[in-house]
Every structure is written in C-alpha cells, then in structure tokens.
Design a protein that fits this description.
The complex is a heterodimer of chains A (318) and B (329). Chain A is of the alpha/beta class and 318 residues long. In chain A, 34% of the residues lie in helices and 24% in strands. In chain A, the strands form 2 sheets. Chain A has an 8-stranded mixed beta sheet with strand order 6-7-8-3-9-10-12-11, sandwiched between helices. Chain B has helices spanning 49-57, 84-93, 102-105, 112-126, 133-146, 152-155, 165-179, 195-212, 223-227, 247-252, 257-265, 303-307, and strands at residues 5-18, 21-34, 38-42, 65-74, 77-78, 95-98, 183-187, 215-220, 232-237, 240-246, 313-314, 320-321. The chains are: A alpha/beta (318), B alpha/beta (329). Chains A and B meet through helix 7, helix 8, helix 9, helix 10 and helix 11 of A and helix 8, helix 9 and helix 11 of B.
Chain lengths: 318, 329
C-alpha cells in the first residue's frame, strides 16, 4: 500500500447565499496516494472545483478535516505556512484568465520564486529552465500572455505551478478549453512531469475518456457528494452506481471498441437539481431508474463493495 | 443532380479584413448537402466551420468578411446574388440555425414564449398567411411540447435567465424548428452542456429531424457527438474540406493524414494512454502556407503539396479526400 499524501475526511463547504445555503461540497472523504493521479469527475455544479479550492486553501472548510503528509491543513490559505504553499500548487482551467495580461511571461513565472525568496539572477535561470521544460522558446520571456496561443498559455501556467518544485499539484480541467491535438500534447507533458519530478496529482475533468487515460483512481461527484470511488480499471469495467452508468453510457465515442466497453444504454433523463434545494434522501433519486421508496427517504451510506471500490447506493448496501 | 442538393457550396473563398491585414480564412470550400440528408462538419477551433455555415445564410458580418470567389446555392438559387428581400424570406421560411451558446442566442429581456411567438408570426407572414394571437399561442405550446419541455404554459412566461442551460438550448431548438422547414444548421448544440444533458439534446435533435425529414448540418469538434447522429461527415482543416465520407467509412477508415492524426489524438474510453498530438499548430491566416494548408504539419508532405492545393479525389463509394497520396487511384 502506497503512502497517503492527502487525506480528506467528512469535508463540507457550504455557501450562504441570498437564496439559501448552497451545499457545494457535502460530507466527502477520499485519500490521494503518493505518486498517483486521483481523478475527480462530475458535471458542472457538482462541486469538483470547490473541493479543489478547499483543498488548496482558497476556501476555508465549513466542517471536516484535510491533512497533507499527516499535517492538519483544514485552515484558510493565510494561516498555512509558506513552506506548505511551496509544495502544493495549482493549474487553473482557463489560462486566459489565470495569467495576468499586463505582465510578461517572465514576470508571471518568476512571481512564485520571488515569494519564496529566491535571488534575482537565480530566478532568471530557473525561469529559462522552466520554459525549456514546457518546450517554449526562450524569446517568449518578454511576451505577454495575450500574444501567444491558448495551449502555450496553459504551458506557461504549468511552468508557473512547477516553479517552486511542488510535490502535489491540483489540475482543474487543464485542457477543457483546448482542442484535442493540443490536449494530447499537454497531457503527455503532465504525465512526463509526474514521472520525472515525482508529483502527485488531483486531476479534475468532466471528460471521462480523458480520465480513463490519466487517472489511477477515480471519484465521481454528484451534487456535492461522492457517489463512487474506484481504481480506474474497475471503475470503467464494473461501474456500480446508477449515476456512473448513466454518465458512462452518455459519452459519445468514435470507435467500435469503445462502444463495446460502454455499459448498456441508460437513457439519461432529468436535470441536475439546484444545490440550494436538494432532493430528500439520495440526491440522485429523481433521475435514477432503480429508485425505490427507501431512496426517497434515506441518504445511503458509502460502502466498500470490494477493496478500494466505494459506492454510495442503497441497492448495494443490503 | 442540382435539384437534389439543398446546399451546394462551390469553391468558396472568404477573407476577413482586420487591423493586422487580410486573413484568408475560407480557401476553396466545397460542401454539399442533399435533401433530407444529415451531414456533420468536424474540425478544430478556428478552422472555418462556423464561417462556412454562416455564409449559407449570408449572416456573416460584412465587412470585415468579404467573399472573394465561389458560389453558394441554396435550393438551386445563388445566395450571393439574392436581393435583401429574398434573403429575409429565405431566413424566415427555409433555413434556421441553432447557435452554440443558447444564453447568447436568446434575448434576456423578453419572455421565451414571446420570442418563439415572434418567429412563428413572421414565418407565417413570409408564407403569406395571417395568423391570430390564439393560433400563435397554440403553436408555441405545441413546439415546446415537441422539444419535451415540461409545463409549456408556465415556461412561456419565464425569462431565459430562469431556465437551466439544457432548457435554454431546447428553447433555441424550438425557435429553429418553427421556421426550419428544409434545413436546420446546428452549430455545436451540445458543447456547452454536460454529457448527460448533451446526450438528451442530441437525441432530441436526431428524432425531430427524422420525423420531419429536414436536412441538418451538425457542426462539432466533439467527434463522438457527430458520429451518432449524421449520415455523412466533412472534415475541415484551416479553411478547406480535407475529407468527406459516409459516417461509418470515415470513422472506420480515415484517409487524410489530418483526419488520421485527429482521430488518434482523441483520448479513448478503452484506455491505453494518450497518443502524441499533431506537431505544429493551425496556420496563421494572415500568411497561410501555400498549396495544401496541412503540409507543414504533415509527415507525408511532398514538393507538390507546397505548390498547389490538392483537389478532391474520389476514393471508393462517396469517399472523397483532398490529398495527393490518393491521386493515383
């Protein structure tokens, strides 16, 4: 059993809004092991990004615990020690808005080094080294993010995240704004960095085909709760939660081999309810085709059906 | 032959005059859709998919856009030579378009019922019919039912902001359906939606065109979404069509080096890692490469590829490919 790097326990993040309390993340637990890629999948509004933001300290948890290498980090970013920030980094979804358009690429990549007190000439050397790592030419140093392509911007964002030599990187939909050929390039680079730099990833995406190819373990989120967690292979070969089946059977694929691995068609119906006014019992019951009376009343517990495969569904807990 | 084609674009060139200079975007596009046919158009962002279909309805902003050459026939009539009045009639009663972002396509300050009602009214006027308020109401309810919206009476009185993304897209589809009798153009209808909702919208769209026998052009960069819905697919790269084939043929046996590379770059549900992407990137339209525009990224590039753009070669039944590799066959 490999060592755990991040442990999340009963994490809750609620937001108080004018319309009521939004339970963006509601009581989820998972662990990320050293050197693995933990994939978090779900549709928009399911709480994937909120989970990541809470983990990174951008939000302070409403309840629950997060620990990193055994150290409690369930506090906001301001209370976290500087050395911790060096180890945990993040790449955001849209490089167009996560890079300051007024700064040059050099200034952007340099900033985390400056924060962590690296001397000026050292910094320049490191920035050039980072640019080489992400295969961008050196003369990009003085360019501004608006002058380069979307894929290149994301490479700059990755270089910035790697600047401080982190051990844990959160990737929040790093390629969803890009074309497939650029996506392939970036994902391959990320996999290469994971091996050479010994990184652990929390990888967030709504693209299940991509997830199949990058994650070691996958967790599915629906309305702020995790409904299934399993090693990637098992997850795709033996999906158990009705939502997982619906999601998998809805993926558009291009080859016959892929068609063959999809579960039998579960006709998707209904829409994701508003997180302010969540359904009673199991959150998924209004869209579920295996729904029983019990599902409408009680929220099912998370059970371990087989080692490492957790499912939150009444049909499996009997 | 002519009469069977609903859309027939021949050798279309479109430039955009912008501050930096002239971008030569469409570079000899040939594109045909037969009556009742379902055609997909795939390609990466910025390859000219939307420009192509917008030129069919002549809704490109001109300027900056400028048609440099070519012909666009819609039901046998040249769109580029139509009078303003004829164009308006065509948009009212023949062709409709569903846009990628339903939030931007709907007017936020009018109730959805009124927005659909207006289209019904002008569509009927174009057909030469007078229509009463009651009939408009009735038709609106009917079309909302067709797109499977629950409780149409209540929905008619809501504003777009009160609806979810999937519902908004269904309203856009309803709006397109009331006037699209012959051709429906759907520009990335599912892209902004979650997979389970996208699945619903695409299925709905497929069923509706099937029932009415309407031709459809489905644009997408999600290859799988296209595969499930259309009969024939065009692949576009940097302003021209590179391959066209029946859906089954194209996905089982892609021929053009670009199509092959594109399919390979898509992550597969079967796993097996992510293959390398296509080296290089989409050309700058200010100074596009001469000849075949894919030549700088192509591993089979020959000198002739740099000189002249290859024509469409017929390879097998209805399978066309614009590449010199297949010129000898």
């Amino acid at each position: 059993m490999s060592k755990e790097i991040v442990v999340v326990k009963d994490l809750k993040k609620w937001f108080d809004t004018d319309e009521g309390i939004v339970r963006a993340v509601d009581d989820i637990s998972f662990t990320i092991n050293e050197g693995e890629t933990f994939g978090l999948v779900g549709e928009s509004g399911s709480g994937k990004s909120t989970t990541a933001y809470t983990l990174m300290g951008i939000y302070t948890p409403t309840a629950g615990e997060i620990s990193y290498k055994g150290m409690d980090i369930s506090m906001g970013i301001k209370q976290r020690p500087l050395s911790l920030k060096k180890e945990m980094q993040m790449v955001f979804q849209d490089p167009g808005s996560s890079l300051n358009p007024k700064r040059s690429i050099e200034q952007i990549i340099e900033l985390p080094l400056q924060v962590h007190g690296i001397a000026k000439d050292e910094r320049r050397k490191r920035v050039i080294e980072l640019l080489q790592m992400v295969e961008l030419p050196e003369d990009y140093l003085d360019r501004q993010p608006t002058k380069i392509g979307g894929g290149e911007k994301q490479m700059v964002a990755i270089a910035r995240a790697l600047a401080t030599n982190p051990t844990f990187v959160t990737l929040d939909e790093p390629t969803s704004a890009l074309d497939v050929s650029m996506q392939a390039k970036i994902i391959n680079k990320l996999i290469e960095f994971q091996e050479t730099l010994d990184l652990s990833y929390l990888f967030i995406t709504h693209n299940l085909s991509l997830m199949r190819n990058v994650a070691t373990r996958v967790g599915i989120m629906y309305l702020g709760k995790l409904c299934e967690v399993a090693p990637t292979g098992t997850f795709f070969s033996k999906p158990l939660h009705p939502y997982t089946k619906m999601l998998l059977s809805s993926i558009p694929v291009i080859t016959r081999e892929e068609e063959a691995v999809k579960p039998d068609k579960v006709v998707s119906m209904g829409e994701i309810p508003s997180p302010v006014n969540v359904p009673s019992g199991c959150y998924f019951h209004p869209r579920c085709n295996e729904c029983t009376e019990r599902c409408k009343r009680e929220d099912p517990p998370m059970v371990e059906v087989e080692p490492g495969h957790f499912v939150k569904c009444h049909t499996l807990s009997e | 032959m002519m009469s069977e084609m609903i859309v027939d674009i021949r050798d279309l060139y479109v430039n955009f005059n912008i501050y930096e200079g002239v971008t030569r975007v469409l570079n000899g596009v040939n594109f045909r859709v037969a009556k009742g046919e379902k055609v997909g158009l795939i390609g990466e962002a910025g390859c000219g998919k939307t420009t192509t279909v917008k030129s069919i309805m002549k809704i490109l902003q001109m300027p900056p856009a400028e048609v440099m050459g070519g012909e666009i026939y819609l039901e046998g009539l040249d769109v580029l030579k139509m009078s303003q009045r004829d164009l308006q009639m065509m948009r009212r009663k023949t062709v409709s378009m569903i846009f990628q972002d339903p939030t931007a396509a709907l007017n936020p300050v009018f109730k959805v019922g009124d927005q659909i009602g207006d289209i019904i009214k002008y569509n009927q006027l174009a057909l030469g019919n007078k229509i009463s308020k009651e009939e408009i109401h009735e038709k609106t309810v009917q079309v909302l039912k067709e797109v499977q919206m629950p409780d149409p009476e209540r929905l008619m009185n809501s504003y777009p902001i009160q609806l979810s993304g999937g519902m908004r897209q269904r309203i856009s589809i309803a709006m397109a359906l009331v006037s699209a009798t012959n051709l429906l153009i759907a520009d990335e209808p599912g892209t902004n939606l979650d997979v389970t909702i996208q699945d619903q919208v695409l299925r709905l769209l497929g069923d509706l065109v099937e029932d009415r026998g309407t031709s459809i052009i489905l644009i997408s960069h999600a290859l799988g979404a296209v595969k499930g819905l259309v009969d024939r697919v065009y692949v576009m790269y940097a302003g021209s069509m590179v391959e066209a084939a029946n859906t089954e043929d194209l996905f089982s046996d892609p021929l053009h080096p670009y199509t092959k590379a594109l399919f390979k770059a898509v992550p597969k549900l079967t796993g097996g890692g992510i293959p390398m992407g296509i080296p290089g990137r989409i050309p700058n339209y200010l100074s596009p490469p001469t000849g075949c525009r894919f030549n700088p990224r192509c591993s089979h590039a020959k000198p002739e590829c740099r000189e002249n753009a290859p024509p469409f070669y017929q390879v097998g039944d209805g399978h066309e490919v614009a590449c010199y590799l297949y010129g000898g066959q």
